[in-house]
Amino acid sequence: PTHLLYIILELLKNAMRSTVEHHSVGMGMGMGMGGGTGTGIGVVDNTHVDANTWPPIEVIVSDGFFNEDVVIKIADEGGG
Fold this sequence. Notes:
alpha+beta, 1 helix, single chain, two-stranded antiparallel ribbon, 29% helix
């Protein structure tokens, strides 16, 4: 269903944004709400951070064996 795709994509975008904002403060990039170059995208002085330094965002999809329940868990380290 389309509505589930939209919800999951929004949750993943929020998880990625919060993870980058939370962990970039410790890297001296100073990203955050209203920070950055004023472009609204959170880039400070075109600093490049390797993608391997970010903590992973885990997505677990579990279905029930004897019923039709499906559980989707999205776990990040965004500090919230």
